[in-house]
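User: Predict the complex with guanosine-5'-diphosphate.
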Amino acid sequence: MTHAPAALKTIDVAALAERIRSGERAALARAITFAESRRADHRATARALVQELLELTGKAIRVGVTGVPGVGKSTTIDALGSRLTAEGRKVAVLAVDPSSKRTGGSILGDKTRMARLAHDRNAYIRPSPSAGTLGGVAAKTRETMLLVEAAGFDVILVETVGIGQSEITVADMTDVFLVLMLPGAGDELQGIKKGVLEIADIIAVNKADGDGARRANDAAADYKAALRILNADSGAWTPEVLTISGRADLRLDTLWSRVEACRAARERSGEFSARRAKQQVRWMWDMVEARFRERLSEDPKLAERLPALEADVAKGDLAPTVAADEIAKVLGF
Ligand code: GDP
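Assistant: Here is the predicted structure with guanosine-5'-diphosphate placed in the model:
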């Protein structure tokens, strides 16, 4: 048994949970720091907190927001979020950006990009956790999502970049998936990843203001046509396309009412709870896999054997299947 150094205070999970419940921002920030930490004891504290707060979680509407850099995600989230807080809602903006590890800081969820929300007492902005794989970043954001829900936030916007696998990951942890598009991009539909259109519940062509309005309408017509082909059978909700302006605050009220309509349609059909349940179970398995991977990377016996095994496999002297077998044996599986 190892003992924690005396300098480390034991954390009173029940007390911290109570402070989160009562909406204390400092307590929430502390809990999120635990969830994002690399330290095993911090992560265990975060897990205990989430368990303690579990019955308060799950009540928010969780919305994924994606789009290429420059499409207007932060401008739109700032305007939409401010509208929602003005109506009395509490809005949390989280981000999933696995590329942020390269720069050591994420652009997504950056408070300077959301000037109004950053100073709004009913909003909470948290940038992407910056360390690790997409799976690792997503796991931390999922935990953060539950913590902000327990703190009383009833709208969670999860921002991600319009490139790669992160969109699917975010769609998989939210109830409604919103894709922002640029006007004019409709001309280059072929260049847009089909995958994004397949998971979009709502496509909002942004910058539909001034000279952009016509081009945005053209793009919207193209996306509508593309969606008709892609989503012959999309369940309770048929994906929709609209034009908005985040900067001029055009049709953001309609956008939000469509987000709520999507959720309501899925609630009526039973898809909503089925989707949430599936997400929970998938999260569990993601965590199991992460644990196994951690064990793999931390096992001293394996660390000793691994360089030789890898070299033999690389040279072609050892079949990868046999090497995998040996690794499993070293780990006692
Ligand atoms: P993000 O990278 O997706 O977060 O995009 P930003 O919100 O930072 O916006 C990128 C640029 O587009 C900025 O210069 C914004 O002012 C501009 N922009 C954002 N939304 C709109 C809009 O609705 N209309 C117009 N005309 N410009 C916009």
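The pocket of guanosine-5'-diphosphate is lined by residues 67, 69-75, 113, 206-207, 209, 212, 245-248 (CB under 6 Å).
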